[in-house]
Amino acid sequence: MKKLLILGAGTAGTIMVNKLAPVLDKREWQITLVDQDEIHYYQPGFLFIPFGIYTRQDVIKPKRDFFPPGVEVIISPIELIEPDRNRVKLQNGKVLNYDILIIATGSHIHPEETEGLLDGGWRQNIFDFYTVDGACALAQHLKYWEGGKLVMNVVEMPIKCPVAPLEFVFLADWWFTEQGIRDKVEIEYVTPLPGAFTKPIASKYLGNFLEKKNIRLVAEFNTGRVDSTRNKLISWDGREVDYDLLVIVPTIMGADVIGRSGMGDDLNFIPTDPHTLQSKQWENIFVIGDATDVPTSKAGSVAHFESEILFENILRYIDGRPLLPDFDGHANCFIESGFGKGLLIDFNYTVEPLPGKFPLPGIGPYSLLEETRMNHWGKMMFRWMYWNLLLKGAELPIEAQMNMAGKRR
Amino acid sequence: MATKTIAGKSIEVDAEGFLLNPDDWNEAIAEALAREEGIELTEEHWKVIRFMRQDFKERGQIPTIRRIKNAGGIPVQDLYRLFPDGPAKKAAKIAGLGKPQGCV
User: Are residues A335 and A378 in the same domain?
Assistant: First the structure.
């Protein structure tokens, strides 16, 4: 019996197991899935929790609801991956051998990487919203906050979902307006990037939005430390930003086990072929989702597009055929912009986000890089699609590879 | 792609002046590139540059600030002091490596 082992049952790992389990011959292949957590988090929903739009219950479901029959599931932290011996040690003492390994161990925040961030202010007037606990604590704080200076800071790139902090300030502008205290709140967006976003055309569009919404942009600010006694962010080159309320995206890194196993770069992301998704070092190891070092966004849409290519490539690898270099870095992100509207961006390794219509060229119903009500509804409906279609590996009406039709330069 | 005469040698560079071929680099070129950035190279600078060249040779990737800190043992604060306004890009440029990959 041959063994296919999947590490991580988040978005990417769950999609992969649902695609592979029905097609691999059960007389030949045993599929095993390992994760340390029994709960599946709908991470795109975390953004809405601070504003009371979603609660914790809206973004969690038991992982077991999404596993196909016939798959061995083990709930345990992973101790070590030994790629040269084709085996994985779990913290519960079990040792798993594999013929093919798929790594989908994701990425996580590391506030301890920034000096002073976990001192007195953490979860008092400093919050993250990349964990469900952080998002809920922030919701509780905002409920009674009477105003002051809100700073949204991105410590360093790359981060998971690079549009989320922008969405946060757009929603904050809307929410404080609704609460009737927008005139008592100053909002500042402090980023290491030279502008609002990573790619130039979208950066210009989104930069205009910040201006329109009276949100101040502080660019090229590389956070060195946080002084929570004086409520200041201090950059490596000595610039200071004051805050009353700091919402922060801390350093984001791949799983600790990747570092322990000596398989990652300095942020524990695994060197991965950007087109085939095979590990650059081990031919029977494949990597998907946030765990890779490929130069595109760390986002669920990317994991989904990658899964279609990786599925083909796993089957080709089993059959001894050459892998298809078909992943193009495709990412697709709704950007909630407040007041019941949203934007949408669609891009890949080589084509930056452009204006246009999506997915049907000229028709839509969604508009690219343009603020519409339809885009907002697309984002809100997506949660249903995520739980009911995406995680189960079903086909969605969006191609894995980016399409130029419908886009304008 | 343009060619540029640096320290008496004709060298291929990109639009922003990053060397296209790291093998064209020598120490005189580093001195000249540093002067263009307004930096006078000291032994502290050379420690960073030598680490970056060595690491690039071994791994084929331009080291990030975190890599220079972790593997090269140089504190981030020092990098910002030695190569002000974007040490990752500036140090890579002076070390004759290409432009570090942008973020996404």
Answer: yes
What distance in Å separates residue A303's CA from the closest CA in chain B?
15
Q: What is the DSSP letter of A279?
A: B
Same domain? A340 vs A377 = yes
- Which of A216, A251, A286 corresponds to the end of one domain? A251
Give B80→chain A minimum CA distance, Å.
Answer: 6
Q: Going residue by residue through chain A, which has 409 residues, state the pLDDT in tens, using 9 for 90 and above.
A: 999 999 999 999 999 999 999 999 999 999 999 999 999 999 999 999 999 999 999 999 999 999 999 999 999 999 999 999 999 999 999 999 999 999 999 999 999 999 999 999 999 999 999 999 999 999 999 999 999 999 999 999 999 999 999 999 999 999 999 999 999 999 999 999 989 988 888 999 999 999 999 999 999 999 999 999 999 999 999 999 999 999 999 999 999 999 999 999 999 999 999 999 999 999 999 999 999 999 999 999 999 999 999 999 999 999 999 999 999 999 999 999 999 999 999 999 999 999 999 999 999 899 999 999 999 999 999 999 999 999 999 988 888 999 999 999 8
Is residue A84 helix, strand or coil?
Answer: coil
The amino acid present at A167, given as its one-letter code, is: E
Residue A103 tokens, joined:
């790594």
Which whole-number Å values give the CA distances from A183 to A127, A149, A170, A177, A230, in the listed order? Answer: 22, 11, 15, 8, 24
Q: Which two tokens stand for residue A102?
A: 């798929």
Complex ipTM tops 0.90: no
Task: Specify if A93 maps to a domain.
Answer: yes
Of residues B8, B57, B101, B103, which has the active-site annotation? Answer: B103
